[in-house]
Amino acid sequence: MPEISRFYGIVIGMFYDEHSPPHFHAVYGNHKVAIRIDNLAVISGKFPPRALGLVIEWATIHKEELEKEWEKMMAQEPLFKISPLK
């Protein structure tokens, strides 16, 4: 999974062989979750509530960038890093 951001032990990434709807993945320890970009709904997986809150906060701030990264990923272009949550 190409990493696009990392903060507080949470790794955010996208896979090049993905499918719609546009989404990203987050990994925190043994927990994994996939989250839609448009409405930030959890598609699959489970995360501790506090960690999920941090991911949603980060994604809200960087929604436009996530949409651009999804388009690049679909075009098989290199992905760029997105600033972590501070």
Low-confidence stretches: none
Helix- and strand-based class? alpha+beta
> Residue-averaged pLDDT, rounded?
96
As a percent range, the share of helical residues equals 25-40%
Q: Major sheet: size, sense and barrel closure?
A: 5 strands, antiparallel
Sketch the topology as an H/E string, one letter per element: EEEEEHH
In terms of DSSP E residues, the strand content is 25-35%
| Number of discrete helical segments | 2
Strand order of the largest sheet: 1-2-3-4-5
Count of structural domains: 1
Using DSSP, what is the number of strands? 5
CA-CA gap between termini = 23 Å
What does the overall shape look like? globular
Radius of gyration: 12 Å
Short description, anyone?
The protein has 86 residues and is of the alpha+beta class.
Commentary on this structure:
Strand 3 (23-28) and strand 4 form a beta hairpin. The model has no long low-confidence stretch (mean pLDDT 96). The chain has helices at residues 49-61, 63-74; strands at residues 3-7, 10-13, 23-28, 31-36, 42-45. By secondary structure, the protein is α+β, with helices and mostly antiparallel strands. It has one domain. The chain starts with a strand and ends in a 12-residue tail after the last helix. A five-stranded antiparallel beta sheet has the order 1-2-3-4-5, with no helix packed on it. It contains two helices and five strands; from the N terminus they run βββββαα.
